[in-house]
Amino acid sequence: MTPKDIDDLRPDPAGIDKAVAYLRAGDLVAFPTETVYGLGADATNDDAVATIFSAKGRPSFNPLIVHVANIDAARALAKWNDAADTLAQAFWPGPLTLVLPLVPGHGLSPQVTGGLDTIAIRAPAHPAARSLLSAFKLPIAAPSANPSGRISPTQADHVKEGLNGKIAAVLDDGPCPVGLESTIIDAVNLTLLRPGGVNVEQIEAVLGRPTAQRQTQDITAPGQLASHYAPNVKMRLNVETPNPGEAFLGFGLMDCDINLSAKGDLTEAASQLFEALHLLDKEGRTIAVAPIPEVGLGIAMNDRLRRAAAPR
Ligand code: TXA
Ligand code: MG
């Protein structure tokens, strides 16, 4: 694709129609989900899926999440089981991704799963994502709509800053309400592969048993690289008092440059995290981050912050 400006679409019927036309033509469309903006392509089209990897600069071994409208559509692609059913009934549509074996005849481009025999699948809750899925009728492969390794996009402007000239369109419906990516569960072994928008506590309550933790940093979720979500500037975590010249990202009542939640609310803080990192990254100062409690959504926030601060 030759560099050109991104077509800015609204989530109204005309915008959805145009987004569908781009997807049918094999072009990429960024769209809002409740977690972050996704970079969508027709999951059955090899060329379109290949374009996702080139637009993001993403390693081809790192598989994509497939977005579907509902459980029935998921069952056409993944070998369903009781745990998957329990979790999907409880949390779909919503910020939970299930990893399951692929079924024969799934029709997806093999690049979607990076050659694995499993698929990561979710039904998003965001109304614009749901309109797009129901109008397009096919599964949509969509990683987060950011250059590989950088901060995830929670607003259409973040997508444009990262991917202008590389994708056809963005469906703009304002900020993403959750602000952190989906939780990923291996629904065969009940292993937590990535903490995210659904708390692991809630998942374990619904399953009636604890989940296992990932034992290695390797390849059941190849995207779980140590350095990820990284701003250009340096970061320091669990800072009580920032050094002179640092930008202070706060949580709870304190004097700081940006407060994720003055009232110490983790849901509010999660929804602000990536936007705050995008803003502070532009200032060029080291970002010092106040301690975030390691409970509920704080677990997913600290996961992202540790990767953002990891040596690169
Ligand atoms: O909230 C989200 O999940 C967002 C929105 C757009 O849906 N998507 C997202 O995609 O975060 P991405 O590509 O940034 O992260 C997908 C993660 C990667 O860590 C990838 O390795 C993992 O899912 N993944 C994909 N397929 C997998 C599989 N078969 N087994 C294990 N992990 C898989
Ligand atoms: Mg991502």
What does this structure look like?
By secondary structure, this protein is an alpha/beta fold. It has two domains: 3-213, DHBP synthase; 235-309, no CATH class. Helices cover 30% and strands 16% of the residues. The chain contains nine helices and 15 strands. It has helices at residues 13-24, 46-56, 71-75, 82-91, 127-136, 156-163, 200-207, 266-281, 297-309; strands at residues 7-9, 29-31, 38-42, 65-67, 96-101, 118-122, 140-141, 169-171, 183-186, 191-194, 212-213, 235-236, 247-250, 258-259, 287-289. The radius of gyration is 19 Å and the shape is globular. The chain starts with 6 loop residues before the first strand and ends with a helix. The structure holds threonylcarbamoyladenylate and magnesium ion. Residues 143-144, 152 line the site of magnesium ion (MG).
Short structural description:
30% of the residues lie in helices and 16% in strands. With 312 residues, it is α/β, with parallel strands linked by helices. The mean pLDDT is 94.
What is the strand and helix layout of this fold?
Layout: E1 7-9, H1 13-24, E2 29-31, E3 38-42, H2 46-56, E4 65-67, H3 71-75, H4 82-91, E5 96-101, E6 118-122, H5 127-136, E7 140-141, H6 156-163, E8 169-171, E9 183-186, E10 191-194, H7 200-207, E11 212-213, E12 235-236, E13 247-250, E14 258-259, H8 266-281, E15 287-289, H9 297-309
Helix pairs in contact: 1-5, 8-9
The structure holds threonylcarbamoyladenylate and magnesium ion.
Threonylcarbamoyladenylate (TXA) binds next to strand 5, strand 6 and strand 10.
